[in-house]
Amino acid sequence: MDATSFSGLLPHTDLNPNFARSYAQGTPLTSVSCHSLQEHRPSSQALAFLSSNKTSKITSLLGVSNVCRPVQKRNGVGKAICAVGLGVYGENVIEHQSHSHATEDKVGVLLLNLGGPDTLNDVQPFLFNLFADPDIIRLPRLFQCLQWPLAKLISVLRAPKSKEGYASIGGGSPLRKITNEQADALKTALKAKNLTANVYVGMRYWYPFTEEAVQQIKRDRITKLVVLPLYPQFSISTTGSSIRVLQSIFREDEYLSRLPVSIIRSWYKREGYVISMADLIKKEMEKFTRPEEVMIFFSAHGVPVSYVEDAGDPYKDQMEECIYLIMQKLKDRGINNDHTLAYQSRVGPVEWLKPYTDKVLVELGQKGVKSLLAVPVSFVSEHIETLEEIDMEYKELALESGIENWGRVPALNCTSSFITDLADAVIEALPTASATAMSTPRSASEEDDLDPVRYAIKLFFGSILAFVLLFSPRMILAFKNNLF
């Protein structure tokens, strides 16, 4: 994941507490909540003020008429091939002697991620794409006509600060390159298991956009598709939001609407994933002088508490279960170190999942912990939150708090056991592919947008209200204090 975390800027919304749970279990949804994105962490009460609308219904937040479109020019990035060593792991051992669908069907795999700017020149248009998404800045329906000009304003104001973060990690996000490597590695692993498949990469806010990947899937005449979000744990703000975009695209296309699709909604329980994480942790612990004294510090990306308590987001429960499974695997190897879980990347005035990573680091230092191993558990690729937030900001904070020995487990990237397990997950998902996987009716806001009279009324009154809002003393002060 490589985008900005702005979920905390959004207001509390009355949500159906069952929809996230049912979606995570595979039930098609008619509505999915907003994004929790992961880069350029601005503090912005202004956006929270803009987006407050506590009485809005969830269906009014899920329209797809404003789905981000590609802007400015595309920056070419060469593919980097990742060599793969294949293996078998525990209960996931599956014999694939032959696949009848390998000859009868043309199989595709779509990897989903959030994306990030390739160069410093891409930062501002990347931010524009992000802020132009109505799931990021939740404007009341009468204000939605200002979504794009507001996105332009904020992206211009935020770009200088965001560029500093990307400059510190080499001038751009590595996420696209790593995801391409993962796609190539997965294709190789599938071929080794006697399944020929085309693997596509679809990013939400930068190239290659999800829309581009879907169009290539059409051109290649794929007859069976597996959708694999690169998020181990399900959240309505990541996997849920990405699938919501796909649903809107598939619903409008005659060919895609009939395409059999299988969606892998979460995969944190998979034996290969758990083993891969345990392997990386064990390897990094051995670099400490006294490994038995190391505190294992899991740092996961946070989500607002309202997502869990009001919307029924299973993310917190899945994350805690994931940590338990990893620690059990380590205990099986004789590793019984203390561990803790905290959540990073919170922004905005709302309450996020606790405990917070920065607070816990200070507390551990005060309690006398001297050796700490940071584990970025919700990320499978290196990006700004691992390379800048953890490796720079949190490391500095930990050392200042009294922790003397710091280590960090790398992201999985193209770890062979991880890629092999993803290949097994794809093969297991193929038989469940269904043409109804992407079925979802229009939301109420979409129906309104199709009515020209209602749309004109919304545009007129929205313009008046937006003018009053944007030029109010409170808004001017908020922009001055939080966006510069």
From TrEMBL:
EC numbers for this chain: 4.98.1.1
Subcellular location: Plastid, Chloroplast membrane
This protein's pathway: Porphyrin-containing compound metabolism; protoheme biosynthesis; protoheme from protoporphyrin-IX: step 1/1
GO biological process, one term: heme biosynthetic process
Matches recorded under HAMAP family: Ferrochelatase
Role this protein plays: Catalyzes the ferrous insertion into protoporphyrin IX.
Designated name of the protein: Ferrochelatase
Taxonomic source organism: Acer negundo
